[in-house]
Amino acid sequence: MMGARLSSAERKSCSPAEERARLDEVAQWFDSQRGLNRDLSKHALKRILATARGSRALELGCATGVMTAELARRFPHLDVVDGAERYARHARGILGDREAGSRQRVHHCLFEEFTPTASYDLIVMAYVLEHVADPRALMRQARKWLAPGGAIHVVVPNAESLHRQVGMSMGLLHRLDELCESDLAIGHRRVYTWERLAEEIAASGLHVTSMEGILLKPLPSALMEAWPQDLRDAFFELAPVAPRLCSEIHAICSDPDHGDATHSADRVR
């Protein structure tokens, strides 16, 4: 999908008030603490923390705080940004008294409205780019917020996931990048292929240090949630066997002007 540009539908943006209302509507029912959503958040965070370093972190988009709680334990300086009032309130409950100080804070605003007061060693953008009107603009902005040697971790849904390919074979999707009913319900503006994600990261001026799959997902979430936990966990462990068939893509990005965030060779698994 090299050379692709955002369609008019994808780029369509709302007024700030309309965008907050859109986010608040999704937040009324989506809970990252439940079922496969919780598993995905925990496994994604495990990958993120495996290479994380430093003391300052920024979480863009917290949902109901699966990652927030762990990031707060790991990073003494943490900023959490979410445009949905329910999610911001939930994050404040997780941080508790710490949020009253200057070291760990929740900001209830759109990402485009956020202005940091310092740079970050880690920026987490998990399940964000598929929601925003202009992902490249957001990544360009986040690049400015990175400390030297810092990393941006991106997690997005994979259009070429095995379960989407099964759905297309069954006639439930006409194209792998088509937004299905569940995508639209959760506010997705797009889904990503590996090539499209790499292109958008590069277009924002960032460097892809690593890309990997997270969950080898053969069936829709509702069916997998009926499985025993150990069986679900096995499909997370199988992710390296077929990373391009996984349901999520995890990319680590660095600022080429500041060197490689992980001090390792480029790797795409």
Can you give me a brief rundown of this structure?
About 35% of the residues lie in helices and about 20% in strands. By secondary structure, the protein is α/β, with parallel strands linked by helices.
The count of strands amounts to 8
Question: Oligomerization state of this entry?
Answer: single chain
pLDDT under 50 segments (min length 5)? 1-11, 261-269
Which CATH top level class fits? Answer: Alpha Beta
CATH homology-level superfamily: Vaccinia Virus protein VP39
Shape field: globular
Strand order of the largest sheet: 3-2-1-4-5-7-6-8
Structural class: alpha/beta
Description:
Residues 1-11 and 261-269 have low confidence and may be disordered. The two termini are 19 Å apart. This protein has helices at residues 8-11, 16-27, 35-51, 66-74, 85-95, 135-144, 162-169, 181-185, 194-203, 221-224, 229-237; strands spanning 56-60, 77-82, 104-108, 120-126, 146-157, 207-213, 248-254, 267-268. The relative contact order is 0.15. It is α/β, with parallel strands linked by helices and 269 residues long. The protein contains eleven helices and eight strands.
